[in-house]
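pasting for ref. prot 1 ->
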Amino acid sequence: MIPLPATLRPYLLGAAGIAILAAAIWVWRIDSLRASHKADAANVRREYALFREQVDAKATEALIAHKAVNAAQEQKWKEKANVADQKHETELAAANAAAERYIRDNRLLRQAVDRGEGGSTGGAAQGDGAQDSDRSGAEADLVAVTADDVRICTENTRRLIDVRDWALGL
């Protein structure tokens, strides 16, 4: 060991004591900061868990409310669809009745007239007996409409009118 003068020895011992005390304080400070950070982290985790529970609860409430609104809207649209279907059925029945009256009153063909090449009348038309199978002159140029054509056109026209009315009501 190196001999130290007796006058320096108390100062060196004091300095060593102060260094040991400073190191102990530093270690205590690190431990206290670590404990503080652990406590802060625990608080943050707790706050985050509470926040997440609140968010989940609000999201669940919003989802339930959204489903209720969707169910109400869906019910409203189903009711509108049922009303539109009933209206269509009623109007289609009336239109079909009018078409049948038209067919009866105008004695339409049951089958289309077969026009051969050159526009001449081919085979005999199967009518109600009121029309002559030998059509000539201006009558030969007329368009032959069958009862089935009238029925199909009536149904399609009524359907399109009802779809248009439904779409305009949206």
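and prot 2 ->
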Amino acid sequence: MNEQPLRPIKRSGAFSPVLMELTIIILFFAISTSIVVRLIASASAISDESRYHTRALQAMETVAEQIKADPVGDGAVNTCGVRSFSVEVAPDLQVNAIVTGDPSPKNGTLYEIELNVTGENGAVYSLDAARYVPDAEVSP
């Protein structure tokens, strides 16, 4: 008799279960990685948009406070008594303001302020404000 140990018969072209499991694990890892990369990219885009909206809102608040401090401004109004101007806060951010003076309230003037922020994609925010100035404070 022959005293050689028995060896399994090798079949050509057959995958071993370990290789199949390793292939499946690599596939799941690749899919998971692509999902995480996509999530990070979308979070970055949302963060950039949120940063832009925050800057726009702060710019509007700043311009509104400046107008409330001096509603007459340079005094340049059109024939209807409306003062319209734009403030460029940044190359991608512009605040448009319309100030209308209404002298009809008793003993003063009511200034209505309309602000809107325009960016690369058009209007972003809009804000309406008002300031009443008694006649004693109105400059000539």
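The helical segments are 17-69.
Residues 17-69 form the longest helix (53 residues).
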